[in-house]
Design brief:
alpha+beta; SH3 type barrels; 2 domains; 7 helices; 5 strands; about 15% strand
Length: about 180
């Protein structure tokens, strides 16, 4: 079975991914990381892990949802990764977070949420199965805790609060019931 896309191919993700993938990022340029076969073996070549411009890696997009723009764009992938790392560093900085509290509350960046979560001792927002719903629930809980401090730009208050409520386990999962 022939593979339609290969590592390093620049593709465009369709605007409409269908009802089962409404929660996936659509209408964006991406670079192919590899097919299922490339990454795990076997004969499955129709679904791909992509590096989405501005977002990072995501699996599994079907070949019918992708349009080839150019081949061999490994250098562009490096540029996108560097730009994302710079943005993550900026928006994960505690000083930046509290200087931009209202912006954070309108739409928090993943690095921002991760920094705030670490403050209260949560290092795994995704849960034990890596589920998006677990991430969403955990992120909303962390942002809810941080909201009054973000509204006031009160970094010192947040840090003091974190010391009082820090969860003792390093890999606590808000989402899962114990």
């Amino acid at each position: 079975m022939s593979q339609k896309f290969h590592r390093g191919d620049l593709v465009h993700v369709a605007k409409d991914l269908g009802p089962s993938m409404f929660h996936f990022t659509a209408d964006v340029d991406a670079i192919v990381i590899g097919s299922y076969q490339d990454q795990y073996g076997g004969g499955h070549t129709k679904d791909y892990t992509l590096y989405l411009k501005g977002s990072g890696e995501c699996s599994w997009y079907h070949e019918s949802q992708l349009e080839l723009l150019e081949t061999g764009k490994h250098g562009l992938l490096d540029e996108w990764k560097a730009a994302k790392a710079a943005e993550d560093k900026l928006k994960g900085d505690i000083d930046w977070i509290f200087a931009h509290g209202s912006e954070v509350l309108r739409g928090a960046h993943g690095a921002t949420v991760a920094t705030l979560a670490k403050g209260v001792g949560v290092t795994n927002l995704w849960g034990s199965h890596g589920e998006g719903i677990a991430y969403h629930e955990n992120a909303m809980r962390v942002l809810s805790l941080a909201e009054p401090f973000l509204e006031r730009g009160d970094k010192a208050g947040w840090l003091a609060f974190c010391e009082q409520v820090k969860i003792p386990t390093v890999d606590y999962d808000f989402h899962e019931e114990t």
